[in-house]
Amino acid sequence: MDWITRSLIPSVLHLQIYNEKKSQFEIKRNNPKDLVERVARDISKLLNSKRKALEKLAKEAELLQKEHEWQDGVTENAISYYDSKADSDYAEDGEEENPLETSTSLELEFVDDPNFKNKVNYSSSAVQIPTDIYKGSPVILNELNWTQALERVFIDNRREDSSLRWQVFGSATGVTRYYPATPWRAPNKIDLYDVRRRPWYIQGASSPKDMVIIVDVSGSVSGLTLKLMKTSVIEMLDTLSDDDYVNVARFNEKADAVVPCFTTLVQANVRNKKIFKEAVMHMQAKGTTDYKSGFKFAFEQLLNESSAPRANCNKMIMMFTDGGEDRAQDIFEKYNWPNKTVRVFTFSVGQHNYDVTPLQWIACANKGYYFEIPSIGAIRINTQEYLDVLGRPMVLAGNKAKQVQWTNVYQDALGLGLVITGTMPVFNLTADTVSSQNQLILGVMGVDIAINEIKKKTPTYRLGANGYTFAIDPNGYVLLHPNLRPKIINFREPVTLDFLDAELEDNNKEEIRRQMIDGKSGQRKIKTLIKSVDERYIDEALRTYTWTPVEGTDYSLGLVLPTYSENHIKANLSDQILQVQLSYTKDFESLLPNSFESEGHVFIAPREYCNDLDLSNNNTEFLLNFIALMEKVTPDSKQCDNLLLHNLILDTGIIRQLVEKVWKNKDLNTYGFLAVFAATDGGVTRVFPNKASETWEEDPEPFNASYYRRSLDNKGYIFRAPYRTARDELLNPENDTIGILVSTAVEITVGGKTIKPAVVGVKLDLEAWTEKFKILASNHTDNRQGSNTCGPNRGCEMDCEANSDDLLCYLIDDGGFLIMSNQKEDWNKVGMFFSDVDAYLMHALYNNSFYNRKQSFDYQSVCERLPNSEAGAAPRGVFVPTIADFVNVAWWTSAAAWSLFQQFIYGLAYHSWFATDEVDAEGFDSKERSCVMIQTQYYLSNLSSSYNILQDCGNCSRLIHAKRINNTNLLFVVAEKISCNTCNIEKLSQEEEEFKEENPCEEMPVARYRKGPSTCFDNNISENTSDCGRGHSFRPCLYTLLLIQLLLLYPAISPNIHSLLH
């Protein structure tokens, strides 16, 4: 390896080149504390600038609604608005639109706006109304009427701040009005979007919740009613966010948790809700009903003095039942009266003839609300309206509750990407007929900020390839992090990547996370494990973490710097850029494509050097755009990022010197090299000779390239073969030229300051180097190990050159991937994980501590959607009665047949309820689903000497010699060519696979530290609880019910009638 250094990448020459150019740059210090505090101030200023618009919108909305006169006789034709769904095609091919719905929407023209990643109209707002809400109802029409005036406020806000993105009012009626107008992003199937179920609305409309859901599973709950209950509970869980805590129990004569290991309330995060949903779907009905058992379980969950984390705000019980006579008064007297700290909501599910008065009484006596869910069409609306009740104390608190809250990060439904939203509740200020003050929440006002806007406030390139900023919220979830890259767009699930999952977890990071959540500032230098960009390797490196809170929010900002990035180069090339415009300099000419043949191919990182520079994925096109711009730009143009632009020109000149002084004077074939290359922090990559660029597959952005980042973190030479798996087609060395990438960081010290501004390397020709490897390998055994060792001047049995037919000689990299072999039949396996080459040998190396391993999880993965086992069995959402149901008298007497008829009528209006195809969350048809992947990475231990291992496998044993090669990431392994394959060993694997949690109770993760919102509005002595729900389900007459029963029964008995007639 020293030979490569002296020949092609001499460090002395690098220092000489940088010294020659030192008048054109200076070494500037990155002060982590100053940097993180400045960025935190900039982010705080950005968020506070949106606060003004939000407060203005909320205030105007309340005044507009107060001044609005209710109109009973208003018609849809009298209201002028843009229906965002009017331009969307929901009908499938060959289907006609619903004739019951006629569009009265305005017709607008739209223009592309890259800021919104959408076509928009700035003169109008748009309205989105959920599919299951009748837009012609007086409530909706009056809502559309008064919110139309918000358009003026939207436009004024944008005039004052052109950087504003979506301004949205989410109404408690389900209507969404947003600005600027854009057509709704139509799904292929049914559109299930309802603003009241969006994370930002839920957070703005109520304080955090501690909820226990109890489900009646007595014998009377069967068939359709049981299915309605399960669906209702699942929909209820979807109204909860990560700020909430929940447990679910089933009850009959006794009560128990549906997930046995959830002995207390657990955070309502994506994982836990998924576990609950699966458990709920497996519930079975039997036994008799005892409300007391269910309520006793719920109260003990909510009121015990457990140290387990809680929301510690709204406490509530949600009871789903088909009815009963018991009022469980003694339970409420014992646990909840007189203070009534726990609200009780009751849900009567299905069609039945039970007296609902006890359920109404239970809700009214405990500050809750009574709802009825007679059919599937009533589930979504009735499982979310409890939020109106929870909003009462907030409305009564007045201005104390008018606080701007910033949400967790989530996917914008209109295509803006990852966003956070500032929210503020909007209260009804009209006088109530019962009390002097109204206690209804009108809705939530929201203003979006794209995460990309926040990223622009953070330093990027001055921190180097391995430096970065990140930010977390009080749940510990990241809203900024280089590893925050969700691969699937799912509007229903929030983006909840924990800081400890975005990185490889350790005790130091756990403490850093805790301090950040607590709003503290701090700094800590730690040695930590880092996963490579390509996720194949793990490196151990030093990092300095610095963090501080973002004022005015509950976010915290962190900055991570490697030691070598504590300084950075700042070029000052105003004169040189001016010379480029007057006449091409040699440095600049080396960027021109006509110079590539003589000086090597140039790749430029696609960075935003100037505002007018058109970015392109095609490097040649981007290079030409850059050259054209350089002929026009002034030396210190305000439209350009001077740090980026100047450093790029500086690095171009430095690499050209390397070409002139070294590369052009060498015959690469003599050394067995396919190419030499250099890449810099400034964004220039040059590959020599030009023809080598045809097979160059590395990222043109050095900061995204695995070889670049790993070379900075490791001393010496980093070898990497082209990655292959056992499933890939084998390479053919005779036809395919296999190149091994070898790279190392350039380290220079100028003025006492050390930096790593570049990475240089070569691409080895595998075939040419294998013969060299046999010779070199015989010199890499340790002469202190006894009779079986080999030295440079004497032969012995462990000599790769002398005994090539009897010995297996390998070079394996630090991730466990094959780099070289003395066996020609292994050449086509170069780049494979070594366990796929020799599973027994790899296991011996791991078992003898040459390799450590680390499991990591990817919570942002995408998997193929699993086949729906129920699809095609029946229309989705519809209960199909069985023979058992037909002969069951209870099924007929409970009027389930009438409920089935209701679903049929509902299906005529919303045909998609009957679709059998599986639909994504929010109705987007997708062949993919989000999933968790698990992967095991291997990395070399700190062993530095050479070792002999005797692999004993029953009647077979073989000697193995292994040694770490100094100044590289390689392990040299020699083994006797005896196949010891009778041992029962673990086949090691490095491939990623889906993590399937068969039994969530076997490995219960410890709840991570988090902090809930600092304010809570769960109680107000002025609250009027008299509005607590009334029964209003429509009861059919006896003759109608009998007729429907006969129609339903006919298909089941008609075959028998026909056979009797024949």
From TrEMBL:
Keywords: Calcium, Calcium channel, Calcium transport, Coiled coil, Disulfide bond, Glycoprotein, Ion channel, Ion transport, Membrane, Metal-binding, Signal, Transmembrane, Transmembrane helix, Transport, Voltage-gated channel. One of its GO terms (molecular function) is metal ion binding. Residues 210-390 form the VWFA domain. It is found in: Membrane. Its main location: membrane. Signal peptide: none annotated. It comes from the Eukaryota. Gene3D superfamilies: PAS domain, von Willebrand factor, type A domain. It holds the Pfam family VWA. Residues 40-71 form a coiled coil. The keyword Transmembrane applies. It is a single-pass type I membrane protein. One of its GO terms (cellular component) is voltage-gated calcium channel complex. Belongs to the calcium channel subunit alpha-2/delta family. This is Calcium channel, voltage-dependent, alpha 2/delta subunit 2a. It comes from Sparus aurata (Gilthead sea bream). The lineage of its organism: Eukaryota, Metazoa, Chordata, Craniata, Vertebrata.
